[in-house]
Design a protein that fits this description.
Elements (H helix, E strand, L loop, with lengths): L1 H6 L3 H12 L2 E3 L2 E3 L11 H9 L1 H10 L2 E5 L2 E5 L3 H12 L1
Antiparallel strand pairs: 1-2, 3-4
């Protein structure tokens, strides 16, 4: 939430995201507290990925890499396996 608050100025949206992240999940008819993450297939996960990974997109563009990203799935196109290793190491740091 701290990272999001630096990227999003709308307090109502931040409050909504917080409530969704803290909402319980229904397992076998009982509500359980979610420990981490967002529900798979839910609309919040791609939104959060796009907000958080925007910085990575900008860095890849700055470096001139061809890439495609949808939510948290990413493909970076390079000319060789050794280049792929270098890019992977540098963006992982």
């Amino acid at each position: 939430m701290w990272l999001l608050s630096h990227r999003i100025g709308d307090k109502r949206l931040l409050r909504l995201i917080h409530h969704i992240l803290k909402s319980g999940i229904l397992i076998g008819g009982l509500v359980s507290q979610r420990v981490r993450g967002t529900p798979q297939g839910g609309p919040l996960s791609p939104l959060l990925s796009n907000i958080v990974l925007d910085e990575l997109d900008k860095e890849l563009e700055r470096r001139g890499h061809a890439f495609v990203r949808y939510a948290d799935d990413l493909r970076i196109f390079v000319r060789s396996e050794s280049a792929a290793g270098r890019v992977m190491d540098s963006i992982s740091d």
